[in-house]
């Protein structure tokens, strides 16, 4: 009983806490102007050019915290506030996304692995719960097993995402310091923004792993009976 309580606490509370932490931290440091005076777009362009990535474009993206790097189009997309404003949060986020562009240019192994898994996960994530639900309601253990295997692909994707994101943040901090874009207390503040963002990935991975473990226990119990 206690195990189920802990499970549901992690399942429900951890992702919500991580999202609230990110919004709170980002909201705080998005209001603090960076001493360099560079907008997120300018920060991204500076770091890209300093790393010989003139072919990577920096564009504006709609939606809050919609920032991302697209390896297929070689585009760093920054949400409107980060693109136009000179804030500590925007500086950190822009550098993080450029960190992914640098990973791509250097053929970072975990990033390549994640890219290869994308088409597989797009299919397996939709199919997995069909088999899982059929297996659970009909007591068809083989159907449940198929669903678990399909779900495992998504869990693997989440696990691989962690080193990709942490490495991008590490690269971001190195670049910001090396090119004198952030100074003094800003370095600590930028780390807080990146750490809060990373926690959302940690929370998602923890939930995915726990759910996979729960289904494996059900499958094992089903076979025993």
From TrEMBL:
PANTHER family: MEMBRANE PROTEASE YUGP-RELATED. Signal peptide: none annotated. This is Zn-dependent protease. It comes from the Bacteria. It comes from Planococcus koreensis. The chain crosses the membrane at residues 6-22, 117-137, 143-164, 193-219. Keywords: Membrane, Transmembrane, Transmembrane helix.
């Amino acid at each position: 009983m206690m195990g189920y309580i802990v499970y549901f606490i992690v399942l429900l509370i951890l992702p919500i806490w991580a999202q609230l932490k990110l919004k709170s931290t980002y909201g705080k440091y998005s209001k603090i102007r960076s001493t360099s005076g560079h907008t997120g777009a300018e920060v991204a362009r500076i770091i890209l050019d300093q790393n010989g990535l003139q072919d990577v474009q920096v564009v504006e993206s709609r939606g809050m915290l919609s920032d991302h790097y697209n390896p297929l189009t070689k585009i760093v997309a920054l949400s409107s506030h980060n693109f136009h404003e000179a804030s500590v949060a925007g500086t950190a986020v822009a550098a993080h996304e450029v960190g992914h562009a640098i990973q791509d240019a250097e053929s970072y192994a975990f990033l390549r692995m994640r890219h290869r898994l994308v088409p597989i996960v797009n299919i397996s994530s939709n199919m997995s719960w069909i088999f899982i639900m059929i297996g659970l309601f009909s007591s068809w253990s083989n159907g449940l097993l198929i669903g678990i295997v399909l779900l495992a692909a998504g869990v693997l994707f989440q696990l691989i995402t962690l080193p990709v994101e942490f490495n991008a943040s590490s690269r971001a901090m190195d670049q910001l310091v090396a090119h004198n874009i952030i100074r003094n207390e800003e370095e600590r503040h930028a780390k807080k923004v990146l750490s809060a963002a990373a926690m959302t990935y940690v929370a998602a991975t923890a939930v995915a792993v726990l759910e996979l473990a729960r289904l494996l226990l059900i499958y094992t119990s089903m076979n025993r009976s």
